[in-house]
Amino acid sequence: MSHIQQKSIVVLISGSGSNMQAIVRAAQERLWEQRWGARVVGVVSNRPEAAGLSWAREQGLTTRTVDHKAYEGREAFDAALMQVVDGLAPGGRPDLVVLAGFMRILTPGFVAHYHGRLVNIHPSLLPAFPGLHTHQRAIEAGCRFAGATVHRVTAELDHGEYLEQAVVPVLPGDTPEALAARVLTQEHLIYPRAIERLLTV
What we know:
Blueprint: E1 7-13, H1 18-29, H2 32-36, E2 38-45, H3 51-58, E3 63-65, H4 74-88, E4 96-99, H5 108-113, E5 118-122, H6 134-140, E6 145-152, E7 162-169, H7 176-200
C-alpha cells in the first residue's frame, strides 16, 4: 500500500455524531484505507459530554475535546482547536476536516487554514434556509420538498461549493422532528458519498 498516498480525515462533532458514525462505518465497509489510503485519524468535540466521543472510542479512534467554554472568545477557541486537529494528522494538517453536527461558527482564520479541506453538511436544500431551524422554516414556508446539502466551508455561513444534495418530500401534517428524521437518513447516505468523491480527486 506504500504507493497510495496516505490521506487523513478529522471529524468535528458536538453531540451524538450520527453523521460521524455513518462516515466511519462507510470507511470500514468500503475499505477507504485500501482503496485511497484514507482513514479517520481522530474525532474532536467542543463538548466533553458529547455521546459521539464514546462511540468513536469504542471503534478504536483517537478522540479529543476542546471545550469552547474554556476560552475567552472564538479566535482563542479556534486557535486551540486548530492545534488539536493538526496534531491528529501524521502530516501536520489533515487532508479533510469534516464538520458533522459541529455547532460552532468558525472564524475566517480557521476556514482559511483549512482552505479546500473543510466540508460541512447542512439540513436544507441550500441556498434555501441557511442557519438554524431549517425544518421548521421549510414547513412554515409551505415547501413541498426539503433535504440536505454537503458543501465546502467558506467564511460565509452555509455557502461554498455544493458537493452533494438529497431531496425528501415534506408530507402533510409534518412536524419539524418528523421531517428532520427523514432528512437525517439521507444525510447518512450523501455525506460519505461526497467524501469518497473528494478522496478520488
